[in-house]
């Protein structure tokens, strides 16, 4: 769980990937921007998802299984890290754009 350890960036990346897809999907289906989504019950979903994915990501690490050892084909640990990083940037860009625009992106 060290700052530069394998868990923090991987867990944050997984949460960002889920958050980005969920934010875009809810925006397209309900027409709510990311700030409205948070105000209308999104905090509870965020807390639940964070707990679930944190535990699910830590269990293999505690059992001694590394993400690098299970990487094969196109689903490598490096690809997951880069997808997570892009999702983190995407969430920030989405929130910033909607804040500046004053409404939904789409």
TrEMBL record:
It is found in: Membrane. Keywords: Membrane, Transmembrane, Transmembrane helix. One of its GO terms (cellular component) is chloroplast thylakoid membrane. The keyword Transmembrane helix applies. The chain crosses the membrane at residues 12-29, 41-62, 82-100. Its main location: membrane. It is a multi-pass membrane protein. It comes from the Eukaryota. This is Early light-induced protein.
